[in-house]
Design brief:
Helix 17 runs parallel beside helix 18 (522-536). The model is unreliable at 1-9 and 13-17 (pLDDT under 50). This protein has 20 helices and ten strands. It has helices at residues 3-10, 19-27, 34-65, 75-119, 123-128, 131-173, 175-182, 184-222, 224-229, 233-285, 291-332, 393-400, 423-428, 444-449, 456-465, 469-474, 492-506, 522-536, 571-577, 580-590; strands at residues 352-361, 368-378, 382-387, 408-413, 416-417, 430-433, 510-514, 540-544, 556-561, 564-569. A hairpin with a 6-residue loop joins strand 1 (352-361) and strand 2.
């Protein structure tokens, strides 16, 4: 199975949605708009009444004035006819405006709910769900629902009221002709049910294929430099062509359903109109009906078929929206989150952080990346963790900040299990600096403050401590300089210094460094080492290190191998043991790195 097909299958819903359950849940987003909905219902009822008035006026106009051969005295009826048309136009304008407003208000709530829900998912959720897929949920899928609210869900009620008013008028004026006109309904119901069955899965598949395209595009554009460096343009092009072909074929199946359905509807409606005229011909010969009634019925039949055709057209909107809502609610029902205890305590760090027999695997039954690890991080001490790639070093940071929860054992802060602490308070204890720094679009100042209260004195001190002051002075706009998307206007070293400034402005109790000097030049590394030296003497520091030269002065070094803590001690002491750490040192000597 190809990677694209695997993605497609992961986005598939095994069972068809329970349509009434989806609609009922969607209706919940309209409840806050109940006043607007009542006004909308009133406009729809008025619009339904105005639907039948032109035919009634036509019938009276022809029956009263046709026999006398002139329109003397017809002015009131003619004025009433045009007045009804103008009133109908005004009602339609108000109705569509209110529909659009109600739909946008509902989608505003849904977008906010989706974004807040995403903010609460755990790290593993984002590892398993491509960004493009999530973007599709919040943008395209929500827009599909907006189309349904604006021109489908509520508008169907208006069409139903119009049909009800038209049918009532038909039976009131001539039951026999009304029955002929309504003879269309069984055939329409059969055609609509066949269409619904054929088109439903095609709509869902089209939306899934569209999400796959979005996910692929996001990944390829984000990694375009890597694609070009490795000459992978042709491979990416083939994959994209394949995804587009899959989407094209799914869309064709949808179009085919419509290509059959609409001509069938047109044939049924035309046949019904022919039957109505044929029936009325006999009645005219027998004198049972008047010309005015016949013309009014033909006129009203056109109005009768219009809502039916619109209902069929809105089925497209409804199916697309149901497919989108199916995936949106699947996302909203996701419970991949780090739970917070109802009685969670505020976090405080005064003494120590302790790992107690911690064991962890990223998946149930998967490889244990941390095994029965125990260790203490006393306040004010500098602890460094080293080991081969895959030894489980970075996992310790993920567990400390509760991006994941331990499987066995526990982690405590001043004797309190981190699972019993408030998540926001726990994470505020840490200042995290990663190897790959994420920078938001905006200015340098905004990326340092991250919406925290502005304190110019504190900011000036942070710039001095983080070695970022020189960069700010060189920039023409200083702290107000835009950094570009993902900080593309900054070098890797400048982004790293920005990360330290951001961390220092937070004023954390514990500094977490995860390979913070791995991908930068020697000059910037020297600057960062100066920063670390300045802050590590007053902060508790927990460092994941690859370059052993950067952690020689650590108070204690933990050496990890295959998830286990195999050695601990100072640099000199571990070298003297001639164990795993000493081997790592010798390997780096061989690579030319100074001890």
């Amino acid at each position: 199975m190809s990677e694209q097909e695997a993605f497609f299958q992961s986005d598939r819903v095994d069972q068809q949605p329970v349509r009434h359950a989806l609609l009922w849940r969607l209706a919940g987003y309209l409840k806050p708009q109940w006043a607007s909905l009542l006004a909308l219902l009133g406009l729809m009822a008025l619009g339904a009444f105005l639907e039948v008035m032109p035919s009634e006026l036509t019938l009276r106009l022809i029956n009263r004035f046709m026999g006398q051969g002139n329109l003397r005295g017809a002015a009131p009826l003619v004025a009433g006819f045009f007045g009804v048309l103008i009133a109908g136009m005004v009602v339609s304008l108000a109705r569509y405006f209110l529909l659009a407003r109600v739909g946008q208000q509902a989608m505003l709530q849904l977008r906010i709910q989706l974004f807040e829900h995403l903010m609460g998912r755990n790290t593993d959720f984002f590892h398993r769900n491509p960004v493009g897929r999530l973007m599709t949920r919040v943008t395209s899928d929500v827009q599909n629902l907006n189309e349904m609210f604006a021109s489908g869900f509520v508008a169907i009620v208006g069409d139903a009221l119009s049909l009800l008013a038209i049918v009532a008028w038909m039976f009131w004026t001539h039951p026999g002709m009304a029955l002929v006109a309504l003879g269309i309904l069984p055939f329409l119901l059969v055609a609509t049910e066949v269409f619904r069955r054929r088109a439903g899965e095609a709509f869902r598949e089209t939306q899934r294929r569209y999400a796959a395209i979005n996910a692929f595009l996001q990944e390829q554009i984000s990694g375009m430099s890597l694609v070009q460096i490795n000459g992978e343009e042709s491979r990416s092009d083939r994959q994209f062509r394949g995804l587009n072909e899959d989407y094209f074929q799914a869309f064709l199946r949808t179009i085919l359903a419509y290509a059959v359905f609409f001509p069938v509807v047109e044939f049924i409606t035309s046949a019904t109109l022919a039957a109505l005229i044929f029936y009325a011909g006999f009645k005219l010969q027998a004198g049972a009906i008047t010309w005015g009634l016949l013309l009014a019925f033909i006129q009203q039949s056109g109005r009768f078929f219009r809502p039916i055709r619109e209902l069929a057209e809105r089925y497209n909107v409804m199916q697309t929206a149901l497919a989108s809502s199916e995936r949106i609610f699947r996302l909203l029902d996701n419970r991949d989150e780090i739970p917070e205890a109802p009685d969670a305590r505020p976090a405080a760090f005064e003494h120590e952080i302790r790992f107690e027999n911690v064991t962890f695997a990223y998946s149930e039954g998967g490889r244990q990346v941390v095994r029965d690890l125990s260790g203490v991080i006393p306040k004010g001490r500098r602890i460094a963790v080293v080991g081969h790639t895959g030894a489980g070093k970075s996992t310790l940071i993920n567990l400390l900040m509760r991006f994941y929860d331990v499987r066995d054992g526990r982690i405590t802060v001043d004797g309190v299990d981190v699972r019993d602490l408030q998540i926001r308070g726990l994470r505020s204890l840490f200042g995290l600096v990663l190897q790959d720094v994420f920078v938001f679009s905006g200015t340098l100042r905004e990326n340092i403050l991250l919406d925290r209260p502005r304190d110019e004195a504190r900011l000036a001190s942070v710039l001095e401590q983080s070695q970022l002051k020189g960069l700010v002075e060189r920039l023409p706009q200083g702290l107000e300089t835009p950094v570009g998307e993902r900080g593309q206007k900054l070098s890797a070293g400048e982004r790293q210094l920005l990360a330290f400034a951001r961390m220092l402005y937070l004023e954390p109790a514990i500094l977490l460094l995860d390979e913070a000097t791995a991908n930068i030049d020697s000059e910037t590394e020297s600057q960062i080492q100066t920063v670390i030296e300045r802050v590590s003497h007053r902060l508790t520091t927990f460092t994941i290190a690859h370059r052993l030269s950067t952690i020689r002065d650590a108070d204690e070094i933990w050496v990890m191998d295959q998830g286990s803590l195999v050695e601990r001690g100072t640099h000199d002491g571990l070298v003297a043991q001639d164990g795993v750490y000493a081997k790592l040192v010798r390997l780096q000597f061989a690579d030319g790195e100074a001890a």
